[in-house]
């Protein structure tokens, strides 16, 4: 089974649209795990209850956080609740117009589950993923966080999203890229035309704390990985 984990905070209409697209386009053995990240809008609970009660074609599980945990913490809770041997971490601002599950399964099967699959992998300098190794700039390729899929065994090896270092948001996917480089694990992109990331719908890029978080987590990322990667690649 594949578990599709979708955290959300308020703005239920966005999640509702994704659930409708999943119902319309996805087939196979899968479940959806909804993680309500301490939403203040009561519709976010009641509407999820409707999907759990009336949708029978695939299971819908529901978790409600007692406090807002953000990207990493919500995905980690969803992964613990999930039943699948493949975990798909999906943002609720990804428009779905086709069945992406078979390609995920095919890639994982081809590589014997020893890869990380993503909607896209960025290998250029994005402004987030540059680190100095041995005094020289290096670019860390990383799987972009709007869709990431791994086997459950791989997720156990990764140890989950690093919320201790990065808090609620920013740099989790770049950190995963660094983990993959350090451990010699390939990241493979789907690049499917029927997956479109709307961007900026789950976290407001103009949020007054966003720049502060980014600067803080950039420093945390470099502190965590510089020495490790220099020792791994002398």
Task: Provide a compact summary of the structure.
Helix 1 links the parallel strand 1 and strand 2. The protein contains 8 helices and 13 strands. 38% of the residues are buried.
CATH architecture: Alpha-Beta Complex
CATH superfamily, called what?
Spore Coat Polysaccharide Biosynthesis Protein SpsA, Chain A
Task: Please estimate the helix content.
Answer: 40-55%
Which CATH class applies here?
A: Alpha Beta
Number of domains: 1
Class based on secondary structure composition and strand pairing: alpha/beta
How does the SSE layout of this entry go?
Elements: E1 2-8, H1 12-25, E2 30-36, H2 43-54, E3 60-64, H3 70-81, E4 86-90, E5 94-96, H4 101-110, E6 115-118, E7 121-122, E8 130-133, E9 136-139, E10 142-143, E11 147-151, H5 152-158, H6 163-166, H7 172-183, E12 186-189, E13 195-197, H8 210-232
Parallel strand pairs: 1-2, 1-4, 2-3, 6-12
Antiparallel strand pairs: 4-11, 5-13, 6-11, 7-10, 8-9
List keywords for this structure.
234 residues, 13 strands, alpha/beta, 8 helices, seven-stranded mixed β-sheet, Spore Coat Polysaccharide Biosynthesis Protein SpsA, Chain A
